[in-house]
Amino acid sequence: MSKSTKVTIQDVARLAGVGVGTVSRVLNGHPNVSADAEASVRRAIEESGYRPVAAAQTLRSRRSNIIGFITDEIATSPHAGQIMRGAQETAWKGGKILFLVNTQWDPELERSAVETMIDRQVDGLIYATMFHRAATPPQAIRQIPSVLLDCFVEDASLASVVPNEADGGYQATTYLIEHGHRRIGYINHVEDIPAQRLRLQGYRSALEAHGIPFDAELVVERYSEPKGGYDGMMTLLNLPNPPSAVFCFNDRSAMGAYDAIRQRGLRIPQDIAVIGFDNQELIAANLYPGLTTMQLPHYEMGIWAVEYLLSELDAVGKDEAAAERSPPQVLLKCPLVVRDSV
Amino acid sequence: MSKSTKVTIQDVARLAGVGVGTVSRVLNGHPNVSADAEASVRRAIEESGYRPVAAAQTLRSRRSNIIGFITDEIATSPHAGQIMRGAQETAWKGGKILFLVNTQWDPELERSAVETMIDRQVDGLIYATMFHRAATPPQAIRQIPSVLLDCFVEDASLASVVPNEADGGYQATTYLIEHGHRRIGYINHVEDIPAQRLRLQGYRSALEAHGIPFDAELVVERYSEPKGGYDGMMTLLNLPNPPSAVFCFNDRSAMGAYDAIRQRGLRIPQDIAVIGFDNQELIAANLYPGLTTMQLPHYEMGIWAVEYLLSELDAVGKDEAAAERSPPQVLLKCPLVVRDSV
DNA sequence: CTGTTAGCGCTTTCAG
DNA sequence: CTGAAAGCGCTAACAG
User: B299, B85 in Cβ contact below 8 A?
Assistant: First the structure.
């Protein structure tokens, strides 16, 4: 109500006719507060428009209710806003707030960001990357509860959540098989990254599971962009016995594949079925015909990471043994998004 | 060095053989500290691995060195990661750190976010939107230095930075004119938003400036997505006297226009030149031929917003009169990005 | 130029 | 169940 000076917990206590301790207990949802006392405290808070000063709470309690979110470039990446959304929503529900720093791949900035976070006594830390890969986060991250998102450390010494790439490749290929295709091309990425290796693995497992022999000729490797997709598709089309369907490493390469197919005067999906990966709305939904593709579980990874942190936080002290368990390495499924290209 | 308990400013003072006041002065870059004292303090800090506790600093000084960043959806929007990047880099240089909250268009969450920020004594607040529009931020935002990004309030009572849409439309159209086109179509967006109105205004000014009469027939309004672009382009192509160039409200509609042009068996840019708006990399760079388009100054707006806040912050006290000046309403230019469609 | 001292506003014992 | 009191770690006067 009043606008002049800041309302403190003292003022509230006076107004409610109780001690500051009681106000604090109400604020923090402690038990052992009489209904009467609680009621008058709440009324006093309401009337005075009291808002606790976060810095004071943090200083005394050593909890900031902040979750730090450090990324190489995620906030500037098109599809990964979903991670932020999942993380942020979940944090908010848990009474936490997200603190974002983008490090632009700068290791110096990265170290500095982690330290700044720790200086601010964040309750936990999320270290996220723009694409699924092995990472080497600053050592300091181990001082507090942390989780890796869309990345992992080789020795699995930090909790991690990443997409299940192999399963995604398996599902994509299986979907094609179920639509009657037996000769299925795969335009893979050319660099050795987890997605590259694992999606191929999924592709092979799916063939095997359905009794289709693997034909090395049907797998080409190109940079996963429209040009590479175009080029890879042309190569497949030029085969003596070309495929009737093609699985593209991602939507961008599928975009190029579309061009090649069209240029040959073939129709999608009647002559060639196409399936992508990533579900980049901007591309997949806008291509004609709409691209059927696998979605990366960005939103879900964001949720999982925060929930994990939250559970770690209230496990502190309660279950000492938990700290000893080896950190979870979670894989999240990539759902199939059906449009019109298969 | 030591790992046990937290190193405090007291420890540093003792180690350096000075009082805590001196340490604090060194930390905060005050003048009036002897070179000797400063040197030993710095050494002590180094040796002890001392890091100030942010909450204590904030509590005492009432400055958090945090800039709050509140957005409706910006962090999940593809092109707007650039805003974050600009803001974040600039904040970091100014010794500030960014605190992001995404409100998902929820006014309740929005109010709550602003309050949370104020509770944490952020030094300033950026309120950003996903597309250029009039906005109604929570009242509480006026309690502290704030700036609107990619939006504005009708009465100009809050500082604001937005793209110069009219100039963008002018430049795009002029570029077409300079390439010899006299009959230029415009596929505008259909909703009444600033970009819709202002880009059209720019288009008309450019025609006028070059003595080309405005022909209402050449302006069509469609939803700014591929389908609308396709449809709008078809309408223009069906004109008795069709245009030789077309300005599309954005890259997504240009994507549809491409389809229509191709379907008619026409070539870009030989038969029809196309220019877009937004420079959405994912589309513009991947279309064939590459789409010439206008870029929105996201990165620059991010920088401007933080710089403005920073200047406001150290103007506090120094120049009381400044507070009285009416808040700046800044327009930032949209640069032309030349590819191969004109 | 520098040491000392008083809090910033809150949470958490500690007695009752 | 609750009040009083003791700081959390730091900065900003205030005397020197």
Answer: yes
Quote the number of domains for chain A: 3
Distance CA B90, CA B149 (A): 15
d(CA B238, CA A228): 36
- What share of chain B in percent tops pLDDT 70? 94
CA distances from A297 to A149, A251, A306, A332 (A): 11, 15, 14, 7
* Whether A261 and A281 share a structural domain: yes
* The pLDDT value given to residue A75: 60
Same domain (yes/no): B217, B284 = yes
C-alpha distance from residue A122 to each of A61, A125, B125, B264 (Å): 12, 7, 21, 59
Q: Domain holding A220: CATH number?
A: 3.40.50.2300
The residue written with tokens 């369907």 in the block is A245
Q: What would the pLDDT profile of B122-173 be if each residue is shown by its tens digit?
A: 999 999 998 999 999 999 999 999 999 999 999 999 999 999 999 999 999 9
CA A191 to chain B, closest CA, distance in angstroms equals 20
Closest nucleotide to A36: CA versus each C1': D1
What's the pLDDT tens digit per position in A14-39? 999 999 999 999 999 998 899 999 99
pTM for the whole structure: 0.87
Q: How far apart are CA A259 and CA B286, in angstroms?
A: 11
Strand C interface, B 8-27, C-beta < 7 A = 17-22, 25
In this structure, are B122 and B80 located in the same domain? yes
| pLDDT for the residue A288 | 87
| First-to-last C-alpha distance (Å) of chain B | 63
Residue A234 lies in a domain: yes
| Domain limits for position A45 | 9-52
> What pLDDT was estimated at residue A78?
60
**Residue A36 approaches strand D within 7 Å at CB:** yes
Q: Is residue A85 located within the same domain as residue A143?
A: yes
